[in-house]
Amino acid sequence: MDRRSFVKGAALTYAAISSGSTARAAELAHIKMPVANGEAAKPRKVPYKRIETEGAWGPLELFQMYTTLLEKNPFAHPGLASMWGTTGNRPGEGGGTGGNPIVRRLADMGEGRIRDMDASGIDLALTFLTAPGVQVFDAPTATSLAASTNDQLAEAIRKYPTRFAGLAAIAPQDPRAAAKELERATKTLGLKGAVVNSHTEGEYLDDPKFWEMFEAAEALNAPIYIHPREPGPQMLQPYLERGIERALWGFNVEVSLHTLALITTGVFDRFPNLKIVIGHGGEGIPYMLYRIDYWERRKKPFMPKLKMLPSDYMRRNIFITTSGLPWGPAIQFAQSVLGVDRVMYAMDYPYEFEIEEVTMTDDIPMSDADKKKLFQTNAETVFSL
Ligand code: MN
To answer: Which one of 263, 305, 315, 329 is most buried, by most CB atoms within 10 A?
Structure first.
């Protein structure tokens, strides 16, 4: 089945379910899952701006630093080896791209990226340092690297102010410095928040030692995007053994753990105005919300008592993006349980640069008003664009 007939099938299923015709829905339930197959596609003109809220970038120097770290001790960083070693997005020898199109696209914050955006119909790309960012280095290295890459990102945005916006890299290894860098990046460089590439050496942001970062984020009204990397060292091994530590499954396990850690330990009672953004359709959490609430009510007495249910924090403090998940049923389900104001379009450029997926998202049966929120206005509100 080609993409067009899939989309038509999905629209019919949706219409059948909405109109209560379960027999018709059952009849259509055999439709195949959509797969973007790289076929040439041209996005059409649409009555909304397409804002991509999860674009990755990184300078070649950073990738060279990953290589150096891995060469020094190949066994100390199995997760980094998976993402940036021989089986990952290996950069070239001596700091080049190695002919790797992902690495080339990550490093290009100029004409090449703009060309890809034009080809895929993206008007504005919110861009931030790719995973694991600065979080694998010692604190002084990570802190200065965060500042220098933020300067470079801000420079690219100054060159293309109508096409790029960005989030700052910060180094949780030194929470005080991270808080200061977030302030500098937003106030001086015009960046719109920060990215944290999930765990830092196996530590998560529910640990109070990181909370200076949340104090700053709340005071600056700066959202923090928790982006995946491989699962933390305490749970990495079973994923590595099966080769599923990255986007196939490990990433969403890692970030859903991180998000639920913030919720269940009461971080959002302490920081009621903190805004956290998670990608990839909310990393599986929306689908499990009923059960999470159910067991929160029955949790063990030693666990912190929350002011609200997890689903309430999901609807107050968390925003999600559709990166890597251009799939109507998932997007509409998230909108229906979190609210249409909390779901934002994202492409996951350049890791999942599929022009066809833009059109798949355009084609999801949804009111014009909701689609404009999905592609444009929610991102403008959340990231103050
Ligand atoms: Mn991603």
So the answer is: 263
